[in-house]
Amino acid sequence: MMVGRAHLRAPLTLPVHPPSYARETMETILAGDIGGTNTRLALYDSQNLREPLLMQRYGSGDYESLQTIIQRFFDEAGDLVHERRPTRAGFGVAGPVDRKIVKLTNLPWVIDEAQLRERIGLEKVAVVNDFAAQCLAVTQLTPGDLHRIGGGEAVAGQPIAVLGAGTGLGEGFLIHTGRDYVVVPSEGGHADFAPRNALEMRLLAHLTEKFTRVSYERVLSGHGLVSIYEFFRDSEGVPEAPAVREQMRSEDPAAIISRNALARSDGLCERALDLFCTIYGAEAGNLALKVLARGGVYLAGGIAGKIIPRLEEGGFRHGFEHKGRFTTFLEGVPTFIVMHPQPGLMGAAIAAARI
After folding, report:
1. d(Cα 76, Cα 193) in Å, to the nearest integer?
2. Number of domains in the chain
3. Residue 228 belongs to a domain with what CATH number?
4. Residues 305-315 pLDDT 10s
5. What is the pTM (predicted TM-score) of this model?
6. Using CA atoms, how far apart are residues 131 and 347, in angstroms rounded to an integer?
7. Range of the domain at 348
8. What number of CA atoms fall less than 13 Å from residue 338's CA on the CB side?
9. Phi, psi at 129, each rounded to 5°
10. Residue 1 above 50 pLDDT?
11. Which of 123, 157, 209, 292 makes a 20 to 30 Å CA pair with 247?
């Protein structure tokens, strides 16, 4: 199995024609990655959407609105904003976008493109779903931003699939128009979880007792990893170590499971993370088949980059490739872990530049 840094047949940042969002004149772009817990804001030069000029993080719940945070960010930026006042902005927001208005899932905020444009004094504003921003970021990634796990070579210009397990499970596609890539949003993470063997059928039965309906997000997320752990403990009779139980009382249980599994210090944690990785691979393979993702499958989100050693051990790619008559096809599709520290911000900046 091939693992390691990515090797692309051609950089995704160099399509056949110049990207439609390339700016001939320098502009300053305000970008935001807006979540229920944290809001990250940054300023970008329109001719370099990979590295921010300035970035700050704020606790979302400490402010009454996004506009309030933006004003503080501008105040803290000082001379930089006075010298390079943003003319356009892009925001990736954790919530469904409906007619350019977003009601955040975990905050009492409503973000309206038109209001932001007027109140902040911007020419153009783009508000997109936060995972759509993650998808846009893939178009600017370089081999150094990626960790490759198996497969052949990515083919420039071919469809790309993106998914990311974190607080939830985001999914999306990128389709090349002949000029650049465009995002096709998806809520595939909420599709029905499909078990592939007797163990996973028992997992589904266990989760159905708790949730009635079980989506892939119920399995492939931080909470999902904890649910898999509880399944092995409560339904499969795997004993729980008192030390692990004690750690979970004061720390994030998903982080405890991952840490102990990676250290090989607890059998229950190892079994939970291994099954998580295999199912993650299976759903990534499902996504690849739906769009024939010869351009590669990219794992974003907060979990993949933290469990690379376990993803490399084989269960992930076995789940990805084991698709009957399409096994040979999937053996050639590469999978990459996105290692860039702020893909959401970069994607929001790209959304602004594309207006």
Report:
1. 46
2. 2
3. 3.40.367.20
4. 999 999 999 99
5. 0.88
6. 9
7. 28-135+343-353
8. 28
9. -60, 145
10. no
11. 209
